[in-house]
Design brief:
The chain is mainly α. Helices cover about 85% and strands about 0% of the residues. Keywords: Cell membrane, Membrane, Transmembrane, Transmembrane helix.
């Protein structure tokens, strides 16, 4: 695989660390600023909404420059946002820092997905995308647990300062390894927007919102769930996040490998099993061993959906993939925001810290139904295409 994929993975590592580490230090941040746990959850929601906004906006603004220069700019923005979070004097400034960092997230992964796919042969595109996302999953094995431990031992501000340093490393990696070639093929914004005329693009983004939202419904409030319900000590959350990260790492690789062979069957399996596992988590969260196993499975099943969904978007928007790819990354984080908000609602309603798991199971179940619809529409379109080829004229619409 090209070394440029390593550079993308390095950037993904830094971004993945800041996205997920907030879950591990959420109680410390809430206590420091004197806000409730659900209120502190806005640091997750705000970040996610910033990704949703930044993904299409910065991707469109970056259509006039090379993809390498845009990736470097995005990493610099990421560094600035984490630096603001590290020195924030009040909760509002902390939230601003999270949003600034998040603006880079969607465009980085969106543009990075296109770069990764273009570096390899067509039949290896999902695998290349999964290798870029490996940086994000490794962040959950090393970066997030390490950041959580650092935050508990030295304070959460040190954690975000360290994340800013990770961003600098990612910036240097992109500068040194990603080739300068790679200006977007379509600088016309209208051409990029034309991808959204395809109903399959919208279906894929809806599956992304709901499927990945299912994961975040459980993970956003994992620290209070594991300490208040399961009975783990706060220090043990670090190792639980390692297990979640290992699951993500393995699921991402499996998802990439099988998506290149049988994309939709891979997606059906992952979403169906994810919904069931999240539902079971409402019960297994009361047992230490079962909770740890279930958490690992949620990471694996959740990230097994990432390569197939991202490849599906690229395939459906082949003529103008950059904006659609970035928008789908925004959809991942819209799911995060939706899940964090819904999870906060059910906790605030007095339903307990396991209630978000049920919300997540419902979200993933709806995503599974949408995947069946997408597969049906794709089969119908292929059948119509074969009829047109055989007869030499378009197939009649019913």
């Amino acid at each position: 695989m090209p070394l440029a994929l390593l550079a993308l993975a390095i950037g993904a590592f830094g971004i993945g660390t800041t996205e997920f580490v907030i879950m591990g230090v959420l109680p410390q941040v809430a206590a420091d600023f004197g806000v409730s746990i659900p209120a502190a959850g806005w640091l997750v929601t705000g970040y996610a909404l910033g990704v949703v906004l930044g993904a299409p906006l910065l991707t469109v603004l970056g259509t006039k420059v090379s993809r390498k220069k845009m990736l470097m700019f995005l990493m610099a923005l990421f560094v600035a946002g984490n630096a603001i979070s590290a020195v924030a004097p009040v909760f509002g400034v902390m939230l601003i820092g999270r949003v600034v960092a998040s603006l880079a997230h969607g465009a980085f992964f969106g543009i990075g997905s296109v770069v990764a796919a273009d570096l390899v042969a067509p039949h290896k595109r999902a695998s290349a995308i999964s290798l870029m996302f490996t940086g994000l999953t490794v962040a959950n094995i090393v970066g997030v647990p390490g950041g959580t431990y650092l935050g508990q031992a030295a304070g959460w501000r040190i954690t975000f300062a360290a994340v800013a340093v990770l961003g600098v490393v990612g910036l240097l990696g992109v500068a040194g390894l990603v080739p300068e070639a790679g200006r977007p093929k379509a600088a016309d914004v209208r051409t990029e927007l034309s991808a959204f005329r395809n109903a399959q693009v919208w279906l894929a983004m809806a599956m992304t919102v709901l499927g990945y939202g299912g994961v975040f419904a459980a993970i956003t409030y994992i620290t209070p769930m594991m300490t208040e319900v399961t009975g783990y000590a706060e220090a043990a959350v670090t190792w639980l996040l390692v297990l979640f990260g290992i699951g993500m790492f393995l699921g991402n690789l499996v998802g990439g490998r099988f998506a290149d062979r049988a994309l939709m069957p891979m997606l059906f399996t992952a979403l169906g099993a994810l919904s069931l596992t999240l539902l079971l988590f409402t019960a297994t969260a009361h047992d230490k061993v079962l909770a740890a196993v279930t958490l690992t499975l949620i990471g694996a099943l959740g990230f097994a959906t990432v390569p197939p969904l991202q490849k599906w978007i690229l395939d459906q928007a082949a003529a103008a993939p950059t904006l659609a790819s970035a928008a789908n990354i925004g959809a991942f984080n819209l799911g995060n925001a939706l899940a964090a908000w819904l999870g906060g609602l059910v906790i605030s309603a007095g339903l307990g810290y396991t209630a978000p798991n049920g919300v997540g199971a419902l979200l993933a179940g709806v995503a599974l139904l949408l995947s069946f619809l997408a597969a049906h529409l794709d089969r119908r379109a292929r059948t119509a295409g074969r009829v047109m080829t055989d007869t030499g004229r378009p197939a009649l619409e019913h």
